[in-house]
Amino acid sequence: MKTYLITGGAGFIGSNFVYYMLGRHDDILLVNLDKLTYAGNLENLRGVEGDPRHVFVQGDICDRELVSGLFAQYNFDYVINFAAESHVDRSIANPEIFVQTNVMGTVNLLQRAKEAWYDAEKKTWKDGKKFLQVSTDEVYGALGAEGFFTETTPLSPHSPYSASKAGADQFVMAFYDTYGMPVNITRCSNNYGPYQFPEKLIPLMINNARHHKPLPVYGDGLQIRDWLYVEDHCKAIDMVAAGGRSGEVYNVGGHNERTNIAIVQTILAQLHDRLSDEGISEALIRHVEDRLGHDRRYGIDPQKIRSDLGWFPETPFEQGILKTIDWYLANERWMNGVTSGSYQRYYEEMYRNR
Ligand code: NAD
Ligand code: TYD
Question: What gap in Å lies between CA 21 and CA 242, rounded to an integer?
Answer without folding.
Answer: 12
